[in-house]
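Predicting holo structure, S-adenosylmethionine bound.
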Amino acid sequence: MSAGTLYIVSTPIGNLEDITMRALRILAEVDLIAAEDTRKTSILLNHYTIKKPLTSYFEHNEQVKTGWLIGELQAGKNIALVSEAGTPTISDPGFRIVAAAIAADITVVPVPGACAAIAALSASGLAVHRFAFEGFLPPKSGKRKNLLKKIAGEERTLIFYESPYRIQAAIADMIEVLGERRAVVARELTKLHEEFIYGTLPVIAEKLGRAVIKGEFTVVVEGCPVRKKHDDQ
Ligand code: SAM
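Done. C-alpha cells:
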C-alpha cells in the first residue's frame, strides 16, 4: 500500500471566510484531521458542514503523537494538520511532524492561507521587500532586551507576535533598545475590532497607554536605518 499525504492546511486567523476553497476540499477529503485545538477546529468544520474525525496535536503531545500519525500516514491515510489559527508550524506546532514525514519519505503538501505575520506586514506601510519574522519575544524583560539587542542592527523589517498581557512592556523595551523607529501594531486582524496603530514606537506606546488592551497583537517594526556612506566619514 502506498503512503498517504500530509497536508499542512492554513485556517482563518479570525474571519471564518479567510479559508481557501482548496483547504475546504482537502479538509473534506482527508481521512483524519490533526488539530492543535479540536474545539476551535470543530467550529470551523461545523461552519462549513464538514464532518471528519479529529485528533489532537498540540505542543504537549506533539512528541508522542508524531510517531502515531506517521504510522497512520504509512498505512495509507491522508492527514490534514491544522493549528488553532493561521498557518501551522508558524509559531505553532507542526515542525516535528513535517520533519518526520519528510524523513519517512511521506509527501508533505502545503495548503497556504492566512498568516497573521504576513497580513500585518502587507498592511503595515513599512518596507516589505525584505523582512525578518521573530515570532514571540521572551516573556521576561531581561531576556527580551537581550534578544532585541542582538537584532538591533537588523536592516530588514521585523515582525513579532505578542500577547495582550505583554504588549506594553514589549513596546517599552523596544523603545529602550531600538529607539524611535516607525512601527505598526496590528490588533485583531480580520476580526470585528481589527485595528492598526501606526506611528513611531513612543507614539504607539502612548496610544496603547490610553487603550483597553484586549485581543491578539502582531507588531511590525522598521529595520535598523541603513547608514549612508558619508556617515562613516
Ligand atoms: N500560526 C499563526 C499564524 O499563522 O499567524 C500564529 C500562531 S501564534 C500561536 C498566535 C499569535 O499570532 C498571537 O499571539 C498573535 O501575536 C498573532 N495573531 C494571531 N491571530 C492574530 C490576529 N487575528 N490579529 C493579530 N495578531 C494575531
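The CA atoms of residues 16 and 43 lie 9 Å apart.
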